[in-house]
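Annotators were shown the component list below and the corresponding predicted structure, then asked to write short factual statements about the assembly.
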Amino acid sequence: MTTSIDFITACINAIGSNYVLTSDTDKATYLIDQRQRVTGLAIAVVKPGNTEEVAAIIKLCNQYKVPVVPQGGNTGLVYGSVPDDSGNAIVLSLTRLNRIRTVDPVNQTMIVEAGCILQNAQEAAQAVNRLLPLSLAAEGSCTIGGNLATNAGGTAVLRYGNARELCLGLEVVTAQGEIVHGLRGLRKDNTGYDLRDLFIGAEGTLGVITAAVLKIFPQPKAQLTAMAALQTPDAALRLLTLAQNACGPTLTGFELMSDLCLQLVAKHMPHLAFPFEQHHPHYVLLELSDSESEAHASAMLEALLEQALEQDICQDAVLASSTAQSKMLWELRECISSAQAMEGKNIKHDVSLPISQIGEFISTTDALLQQHFPGCRNVTFGHLGDGNLHYNISPRVDQSSDDLLAQQDQINRVVHDSVTRFNGSISAEHGIGTLKREELLRYKSPIEIALMKSIKQALDPLNLMNPGKVI
Amino acid sequence: MTTSIDFITACINAIGSNYVLTSDTDKATYLIDQRQRVTGLAIAVVKPGNTEEVAAIIKLCNQYKVPVVPQGGNTGLVYGSVPDDSGNAIVLSLTRLNRIRTVDPVNQTMIVEAGCILQNAQEAAQAVNRLLPLSLAAEGSCTIGGNLATNAGGTAVLRYGNARELCLGLEVVTAQGEIVHGLRGLRKDNTGYDLRDLFIGAEGTLGVITAAVLKIFPQPKAQLTAMAALQTPDAALRLLTLAQNACGPTLTGFELMSDLCLQLVAKHMPHLAFPFEQHHPHYVLLELSDSESEAHASAMLEALLEQALEQDICQDAVLASSTAQSKMLWELRECISSAQAMEGKNIKHDVSLPISQIGEFISTTDALLQQHFPGCRNVTFGHLGDGNLHYNISPRVDQSSDDLLAQQDQINRVVHDSVTRFNGSISAEHGIGTLKREELLRYKSPIEIALMKSIKQALDPLNLMNPGKVI
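Structure shown to annotators:
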């Protein structure tokens, strides 16, 4: 306890008493995850104002052997930014490091601090007529540091890649409190080991990301969407290949959803118009981002859909003729999660597969689930162009949600075993945190786990950085 | 010596006597770099035929404490695949692991073994109407394993990224001889630390890459080039921004060259037609890769060049009207290195800079060199779109090459100091090997060097993997 008081005093001396929160009221919102499922404890919530202060705090944590839980917008889905209930750790909130340091439209880069909210970074790019393509549901409150620590995905991965692919350099405070000045905005740099990509996706277990150089791109002149109705996921794959051949990098979105997804949207959001005259087993939402004009995008999309109809790949198609119509089609896709939640509690899986295997994965896994859990309802949708499925399960119509949730472990086992047989991933874009840590140990090979442990041991020998997360 | 004989016997037992070369004649070509500047020694050249045999050999190297120098096509420029002259090591040649295991056009991936020659991999992609974009001068003899171990660059980086960005998963034999089965062809996978990118670019110092999942892409329908004549590198940057805004991802090449470059080509390769009526201070070669048609690419390129001429960004421009003309323009660019070599020995630098800084870097560094080495000739060209310059120096007209080479260290110091002031990299695409190891130690921050060393120590505690390279 004396140690703890000395440590708190040292933190206050380093960054000021306003930024070391110790009362339960002040700490509360930092100790619970956004879905309010997990609550932890902490000695204090510490809020440094710049990189040097982050380094000073981490040095104190080394001196007093205090574990550190880095936290940005705290919007993660796997409890990676919430402390455990030991009460030994501090939460290191990065939200005061929220500046956009520079925007360089010619180099097509911007330097952004870890605590900057994603949407603010997007807007700063837009102000110089550039696009920061990283985009996801939480963009109004998630932060760049968290996006990089979890290697966030989102809706622009098909064309621009994950958060990892959008980062050229990092400023990092190591587990020992040293600052790595790696903010190089270079497209090519082959001078030693790739430290950057080691910190990206490590969920704060190897060090603290304090700033990043992000890639920005020319703004597309037009974005246009269409929706195609088709029989099977395999038909959706044929449409994907057709679209990639015809549109190349202009194709920026390719989302699959089953009919049940849109039935739930229709039931719970009746104000959203269903775009077809009749229901079909599956639908694909396509998006083109065109560097020329809306007319050019429209002609390209029309030609593609005509070809798909002629070849009987899809049975019907609608093409948005305005930005408003495009938004409406996206809204159908984006409301699936909420509609499923309004239908009752459900079991979520964020999995990825080799794209060519998705049809077989869905039919095989659906059948296995029906065999073991007859009547359970698959609400399957996702970023098909990235091989990323949100393979969610709702209870059968006469079953309570709690009844289904009681079977969660068994259902996860069926789904994740199937994912593994198809050489897929049990966490496509959400990360590991504590939620999937046991699953990771089950499915990752012992040799990969051993390599990860030896890297963790090398960079954080005192195990102070976000202990208990990932590994 | 007994140990050495026992080790050789064990290797022969593991993979057969045909594949353990011990005579000087058999070993010779594996012990010298392609430019014949550095020769090393080795106990043996060991040529396993598959991944299990690689693992068996590495296990023996652990047992007998024998260092390992992995080697692919041995085309590297920094002596990374040549052993030192201690004679303690083996060369581990991967050339027998040369299969293309699978090509999956729907997932847009191929699985290729480390010893497969790049051109063979390109052709296998082409056979299913897909493009493996990695392309570089040595593609007829370099291998995929070496391309990944050095994170190769080349001519398609502007649109498709370096070798790193083209790889989704790796099969690796660790320094202990364990096999990591990481051949996952997934676009999204957030399950722990990024081991893949740690092995990529490590130049064989952390383990041996034995196979990789590579991304492939739709073939463009047309490729078209143009050349613009302009006054300054800054004008070239304005043209780059204009082209990026107008063409988006269709722009796949943007190469800068100074007038002296093309004067040397004209002098030593008089059969190559100079495309302009008069000389200008600088030239840019642009390439579009169009997913629609040649007509579409041509119209886009014409509109771009008209705009650039109107805005006085460039003073003249030629547009290739056929594939043959396109090739001729590329040939001018690709012959610069040879023309400079025919002019005499010279000093090469493979540097990268923030793209927006390139104009200032060139004028500042040119001036510094003229101040310290009056009359030396800058032969400056490179992948401007990637920020990568081949900033080469030829002797002044009345100076011998040997005279210039005697000043190599001082010239490197001026150039690399300047690169560092502009926050650039002293090795953009060639890597470190032994050639730039001292430079790396000089320019990389001590904390980054310390992190690299701790990773090396963690993954290869016996220092058996390509010792003396990189770090």
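Statements collected:
1. The mean pLDDT of chain A is 96.
2. Chain A touches chain B through 96 residues (CB under 8 Å).
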